[in-house]
Amino acid sequence: MTQLSANDTATHCLISPPGLHELPPPELRLGVLASGNGSNFSAILAAIAAGQLRAEVTVVVYNNPTAKVAERAAAAGIPAVLLDHRAYETRVAMDQAIVAVLRSHRVDWVIMAGWMRRVTQRLIDAFPQKILNIHPSLLPSFPGLAAVEQALTAGVKITGCTVHVVELEVDSGPIIMQAAVPVLPDDSAEKLQARIQIQEHRIFSLAIALAAQQAQKLAQQSESISIR
Ligand code: GAR
């Protein structure tokens, strides 16, 4: 059997679903929620700049004062708003504040790019079917914290990442796209995480475009049904 090396993973990863429809996706106004580094946020900006995603990030909301995503947003000239969860008595109060910021920037899709907070129905109801999350495992396997470590402990040979629509239960909701990443014999959590992130950066913008196309199609279908 041929052993895979770390360099092989870009060619050996599988992405589902395989392609996008020909219909050009609509122009999207994205609000990004992030808690940390923000490499997925930067990857989305790169896809927009490359013309692969017809969208604009109108605001970044972050909950941790030291999150590097704030620097990334500043460098890109995108407003970044700190909503420190410690300042709110309840999760609902925090989500209410998030909704207010997103609305004030006329966001239509909410992109959870490393957002490490549980969401409440308040946020979900404000953007029905329009909140997407990325998670570093092939859901429904290994939801929650430390997904990469969970996969290593379980001894799976393939893990990956998932973009899904957000529902109330953590890391649940309809799956938009996944990429598979092989676990190598000498993997550490750091090495595996780094290879998963390469795939996250590839699929997140594809998944946003696909979800927007699906939503647009559904809207057109329901419009034609109500006209008839
Ligand atoms: C990503 O790997 C993402 O999958 C994970 O946080 C990381 C953020 O990286 N999200 C979760 O675990 C959510 N359950 P980034 O800040 O460099 O984009």
TrEMBL record:
<comment type="pathway">
    <text>Purine metabolism; IMP biosynthesis via de novo pathway; N(2)-formyl-N(1)-(5-phospho-D-ribosyl)glycinamide from N(1)-(5-phospho-D-ribosyl)glycinamide (10-formyl THF route): step 1/1.</text>
</comment>
<dbReference type="InterPro" id="IPR036477">
    <property type="entry name" value="Formyl_transf_N_sf"/>
</dbReference>
<keyword id="KW-0808">Transferase</keyword>
<comment type="similarity">
    <text>Belongs to the GART family.</text>
</comment>
<feature type="binding site">
    <location>
        <begin position="38"/>
        <end position="40"/>
    </location>
    <ligand>
        <name>N(1)-(5-phospho-beta-D-ribosyl)glycinamide</name>
    </ligand>
</feature>
<dbReference type="GO" id="GO:0004644">
    <property type="term" value="F:phosphoribosylglycinamide formyltransferase activity"/>
</dbReference>
<feature type="site" description="Raises pKa of active site His">
    <location>
        <position position="171"/>
    </location>
</feature>
<feature type="active site" description="Proton donor">
    <location>
        <position position="135"/>
    </location>
</feature>
<feature type="binding site">
    <location>
        <position position="133"/>
    </location>
    <ligand>
        <name>(6R)-10-formyltetrahydrofolate</name>
    </ligand>
</feature>
<dbReference type="InterPro" id="IPR002376">
    <property type="entry name" value="Formyl_transf_N"/>
</dbReference>
<keyword id="KW-0658">Purine biosynthesis</keyword>
<dbReference type="InterPro" id="IPR004607">
    <property type="entry name" value="GART"/>
</dbReference>
<dbReference type="GO" id="GO:0005829">
    <property type="term" value="C:cytosol"/>
</dbReference>
<feature type="binding site">
    <location>
        <position position="91"/>
    </location>
    <ligand>
        <name>(6R)-10-formyltetrahydrofolate</name>
    </ligand>
</feature>
<dbReference type="GO" id="GO:0006189">
    <property type="term" value="P:'de novo' IMP biosynthetic process"/>
</dbReference>
<dbReference type="Pfam" id="PF00551">
    <property type="entry name" value="Formyl_trans_N"/>
</dbReference>
<feature type="domain" description="Formyl transferase N-terminal">
    <location>
        <begin position="29"/>
        <end position="208"/>
    </location>
</feature>
<protein>
    <recommendedName>
        <fullName>Phosphoribosylglycinamide formyltransferase</fullName>
        <ecNumber>2.1.2.2</ecNumber>
    </recommendedName>
</protein>
<comment type="function">
    <text>Catalyzes the transfer of a formyl group from 10-formyltetrahydrofolate to 5-phospho-ribosyl-glycinamide (GAR), producing 5-phospho-ribosyl-N-formylglycinamide (FGAR) and tetrahydrofolate.</text>
</comment>
